[in-house]
Amino acid sequence: MSDDTVVVWDESLLAYDMGDHPLDPVRVELTFALARELGILNRPGVRVVKPEPADDALLTRVHEPAYLAAVRNAPRDPLFAGYGLGTSDNPVFEGMHESSALIAGATVAAAEAVWRGDARRAVNVAGGLHHAMRARAAGFCVYNDPAVAIARLLDLGAERVAYVDVDVHHGDGVQQIFWNDPRVLTVSVHETPLALFPGTGFPDETGGPGAQGTAVNMPLPPGVDDSGWQRAFHAIVPSVLRAFRPQVLVSQCGADGHRLDPLADLNLTVDGQRATYLAMRALADELCDGRWVATGGGGYALVEVVPRAWTHLLAVATGDPIDPATLTPPAWRDLVASRQLGREVPLRMTDDADPSYEPWQPTGEPNAVDRAIAATRKTVFPLLGLDPHDPRD
């Protein structure tokens, strides 16, 4: 296996543009500009690969043919409605099929590179559209690129694929698509569905018949900070991954759990997000011989958060992490200013936060986070042969 890292990128990925909408492609543009200014894309062993669109054979591994036809035809019909399209969340836009297929193709290219041994890790930060269902757009997502990539891994011979979603929203589309497939473990750490879209992701969602225990959900109460989030992540994710023994790890790394994100209610920092990326890389190294496919996802603090978070992700995937005290380059700050986005430009790659945490223990007076941890462990751990009360599991 090559030790290279593939970064799938081309400016054509910015064409997934819903107009006046929270999911603004400028966040991806500014991520790559920041990564480039910091030299991450020029590191030894980093290969930037131009994506090709996923064809219908790939897309229909997870999406219904009639849905693909609707996505193609919708821009031609000003009165189009149906399949979740034409809503405020999922407006119809010109080139919708083509740009969505390109994002899916980019994540598939990342997965193929890792599975075939052309790279140890691969990243598509323009991907992570995890809410799209088999025949319905949802949550800003038209085609579910992580699910298409996972289906491609299965077709290439993978027997166990783990999907870990750290977006603030539940990874509902990926979970639903593989609900009955015991070859795919879906793990989602998210804000409680009692407070946030999409209203799913409760602990008792554990997988369909024959696949029980292969859906794992860790919902957290609003307001959770880095220490609580890390405590929950480490109380659940390493244990279930070790029990499942995946051959490859696919991650959705939405940055919308940050305290500045306008669409959610968690209180994370870029320092905590950086710590999560390091933890996922370590789990891939421990369990999957390093095979890690990382995507972006949500994130709506377009300047203040997303470019820094995903630049940290790119750094972790390609080699040494960035020192949090690193200054953002002046040329990048000038680029942001030229976009006239009206946002405060961060001067450093840190929020000056300490992402350390106290490991979960089944004793003591439980707080809201510990009650959530206990609920998830009690529900799903026995299905995986784990002891919900043993902190070593």
Notes on the protein architecture:
The protein is an alpha/beta fold and 393 residues long. Helix content is 34%, strand content 10%. The protein has an eight-stranded parallel beta sheet, sandwiched between helices. Helix 7 (226-244) runs parallel beside helix 8 (270-287) and helix 7 (226-244) runs parallel beside helix 11. The radius of gyration is 19 Å and the shape is globular.
Write the SSE topology.
Blueprint: E1 5-8, H1 26-37, E2 46-49, H2 56-59, H3 65-73, H4 96-115, E3 121-124, H5 145-155, E4 161-165, H6 172-177, E5 184-191, E6 215-220, H7 226-244, E7 248-252, H8 270-287, E8 292-295, H9 306-318, H10 330-338, H11 368-380
Parallel strand pairs: 1-2, 1-3, 3-8, 4-5, 4-7, 5-6, 7-8
Helix pairs in contact: 1-9, 1-10, 4-5, 7-8, 7-11, 8-9
Order of helices and strands: EHEHHHEHEHEEHEHEHHH
Based on CA inertia axes, which overall geometry fits? globular
Distance between the termini: 31 Å
What class do helices, strands and sheet pairing give?
Answer: alpha/beta
Please list the strands of the largest sheet in the order they lie side by side. 2-1-3-8-7-4-5-6
Helix content: 25-40%
Strand content: 5-15%
Task: Give the helix tally.
Answer: 11
Oligomer: single chain
Radius of gyration: 19 Å
Mean pLDDT: 97
Q: How does the major sheet shape up?
A: 8 strands, parallel
Number of strands: 8
Q: Which stretches of 5+ consecutive residues score pLDDT under 50?
A: none
